[in-house]
Design brief:
The protein is α+β, with helices and mostly antiparallel strands. The chain has 3 domains: 7-168, Cytidine Deaminase, domain 2; 205-278, Immunoglobulins (Immunoglobulin-like); 293-334. It is 31% helix and 28% strand. The protein contains 6 helices and 15 strands. It has helices spanning 23-31, 98-107, 142-145, 150-159, 172-193, 285-333; strands at 7-9, 17-20, 52-62, 65-72, 81-89, 111-116, 119-124, 139-141, 205-209, 212-216, 226-232, 235-241, 247-250, 256-263, 272-278. The strands form 3 sheets. The chain has an 8-stranded mixed beta sheet. Strand 9 and strand 10 form a beta hairpin. The chain is elongated and about 145 Å long.
Length: 334
C-alpha cells in the first residue's frame, strides 16, 4: 500500500482550500529547467535572463475543497478536471502578469500557481469573480513544501564543481577580474541571503487604556513596513504601517475586536499574526451603571427623609394630645 502525503494551503481569507502532492512543485520546476554552463549564482545579475514556463493544472474539486494532482504543458490527464494554470520563473516575485491573467481567464480556471525562484503561492478566484493578482493570500517556501529529488540534487552537485577548463598562467586578466569580483561578494551576499534570514515573531499584544485599545507587536518585526487590519463588529479598517513601527491605538466601538498585523513585503512570504480583544463590560453600559447607582442613592436618601418626617409627625401628634389633655383638666377645675 502506498501512502500519499498532501500539502495543504488554506489561509483564512481564501475562499478555497487547496491540497497538492509535493511532487507537483518538482514537476512545475522541471518544466522550467534549462542547462547552463555556469551556476546562476556565478552569472552577474545584469547578464541574467529570467526564464518562464507555464501550463495547466488538473485535479478534482468538491465545493470549496480542491485537490491539485497533476501539471502538464498542454495535455489533459484521464479522469481529471482542469483547475487553472501554473507559472514558473527562475527568479523574481510571486505575482500574476497581465499575460498570466489573460491565460487564466482563457482557461476559466479557479486557481493559479506561481513559482518564482524558491517561493511559491496560489491565486484563487474570489466569490465575486475577481482575482488578486498582485499578491498571493499566503506565500510559502518551495523547500518547505517539497523535498528535492535525487536526480536534481545530483545536478546541483555537478553545478558546484569548478569549470572543466582550468585557468592558465598567461591569462592574467582573468585573475584580475576574479580578484575584483571577490570585493563584490560581501555586499551581494547580504542582499541574496536576506530573504533566508530568520524573521522576528510579530507577537501581537492588546490592552485597554482610558477607553482606547493599545495594539503592540515586536519591535523590528516590520522592518519593511506592514498592514494593520481591525475588525470591529461589522466594520473593517485597514491601516498601512511604516517600517519599524511597533504600536498603534484604536478606539473600539463594539465589545469584540479582532486585530491582524501582517508584513508588507512579498519577499520571504506572508508573515502575520492575529489577536482578539473582548471587553468584559459591554460598551455603553458604564454610563447606565453609573446612572443606576445614582438613582439608588437618591431613593435611599428619600426613604430616610420619609422616615424622619413620619417620626416628626408622630412627635407632633403626641404633643397635641398632651396639650389637649392639659386643656381639659384646666376646664374641669374651673
Amino acid at each position: 500500500m502506498v501512502t500519499v502525503h498532501y500539502r495543504r494551503w488554506c489561509p483564512p481569507q481564501s475562499p478555497l482550500r487547496i491540497e497538492f502532492p509535493p511532487e507537483l512543485l518538482h514537476d512545475v520546476r522541471l518544466m522550467n529547467a534549462q542547462p547552463a554552463r555556469l551556476p546562476l549564482r556565478w552569472i552577474p545579475r545584469v547578464n541574467r535572463v529570467v526564464t518562464q514556463s507555464s501550463g495547466l493544472l488538473f485535479g478534482v474539486r468538491q465545493e470549496n475543497e480542491v485537490r491539485v494532482l497533476a501539471a502538464h504543458a498542454d495535455k489533459s490527464p484521464d479522469g481529471l478536471s482542469p483547475l487553472g494554470i501554473f507559472v514558473c520563473r527562475a527568479r523574481g516575485e510571486v505575482f500574476l502578469t497581465d499575460d498570466d491573467l489573460a491565460s487564466f481567464e482563457k482557461q476559466q480556471g479557479v486557481l493559479a500557481l506561481v513559482v518564482a525562484g524558491g517561493q511559491a503561492g496560489f491565486f484563487v478566484r474570489e466569490p465575486d469573480g475577481s482575482v488578486q493578482a498582485i499578491r498571493s493570500h499566503e506565500e510559502f517556501r518551495v523547500a518547505d513544501a517539497a523535498t528535492r529529488p535525487v536526480a536534481e540534487r545530483a545536478d546541483a552537485t555537478a553545478e558546484r564543481r569548478a569549470p572543466d577548463r582550468p585557468w592558465r598562467g598567461d591569462h592574467v586578466w582573468k585573475r584580475v577580474a576574479a580578484c575584483a569580483a571577490l570585493f563584490l561578494v560581501p555586499a551581494g551576499a547580504f542582499a541574496y541571503l536576506r530573504p533566508l534570514l530568520p524573521r522576528l515573531p510579530i507577537a501581537v499584544v492588546l490592552r485597554e487604556e482610558a477607553g482606547q485599545l493599545v495594539i503592540g507587536w515586536t519591535a523590528g518585526a516590520l522592518a519593511e513596513g506592514g498592514r494593520l487590519e481591525i475588525r470591529d463588529g461589522s466594520e473593517r479598517n485597514i491601516l498601512m504601517l511604516r517600517a519599524n513601527t511597533s504600536s498603534a491605538t484604536y478606539r473600539p466601538k463594539g465589545d469584540d475586536v479582532e486585530v491582524r498585523v501582517s508584513t508588507e513585503t512579498r519577499a520571504g512570504g506572508a508573515h502575520w499574526e492575529a489577536a482578539r480583544f473582548a471587553s468584559r463590560t459591554p460598551r455603553g453600559t458604564s454610563g447606565t451603571l453609573a446612572a443606576s447607582g445614582a438613582l439608588q442613592d437618591r431613593i435611599g436618601a428619600l426613604m430616610l427623609e420619609a422616615q424622619e418626617l413620619r417620626r416628626s409627625l408622630a412627635e407632633g401628634q403626641a404633643r397635641t394630645q398632651a396639650l389637649a389633655a392639659n386643656l381639659a383638666a384646666a376646664t374641669r377645675e374651673r
